[in-house]
Amino acid sequence: MHPDAREELLEFLRRVKCDANADGDDAVQVTVPDAIGEEQARLEIDLYLKAWQASHPDVEAHLL
């Protein structure tokens, strides 16, 4: 992921109240403080990622 796109993703995730930080060159570490359990957190992050990608169709990002 291009560094500018990664920074935009980090800013987006922070605006929706996630804790988000760069992790190496191509990864982003995300936690959802208000989520009840890992499954809910993954669902929320997946939705946020899909919403962000809708406005960035040229960027490829995946939830691991």
What would you note in describing this structure?
- There is one protein chain.
- The protein is α+β, with helices and mostly antiparallel strands and 64 residues long.
- The protein has one domain.
- Helices cover 47% and strands 16% of the residues.
- The chain is built from two helices and two strands.
- It has helices at residues 3-15, 38-54, and strands at residues 19-23, 27-31.
- Strands 1-2 form a two-stranded antiparallel sheet.
- A hairpin with a 3-residue loop joins β1 (19-23) and β2 (27-31).
- The longest helix is centred in the C-terminal third of the chain and has 17 residues, at 38-54.
- It is globular.
- Residues in helices, as a percent range: 40-55%
Contiguous helical run count: 2
Q: What's the SSE pattern? A: HEEH
- Give the total of domains: 1
Strand count, sense and closure of the main sheet? 2 strands, antiparallel
**Class derived from helix and strand content:** alpha+beta
Give the amount of beta strand, in percent.
15-25%
Strand arrangement in the largest pleated sheet: 1-2
Number of strands: 2
Cα-to-Cα separation, first versus last residue:
15 Å
What would the average pLDDT be, to the nearest integer? 91
> From the alpha-carbon coordinates, what is the Rg to the nearest angstrom?
11 Å
Give a concise summary:
The chain has one domain (3-54). Helix content is 47%, strand content 16%.
SSE arrangement:
Blueprint: H1 3-15, E1 19-23, E2 27-31, H2 38-54
Antiparallel strand pairs: 1-2
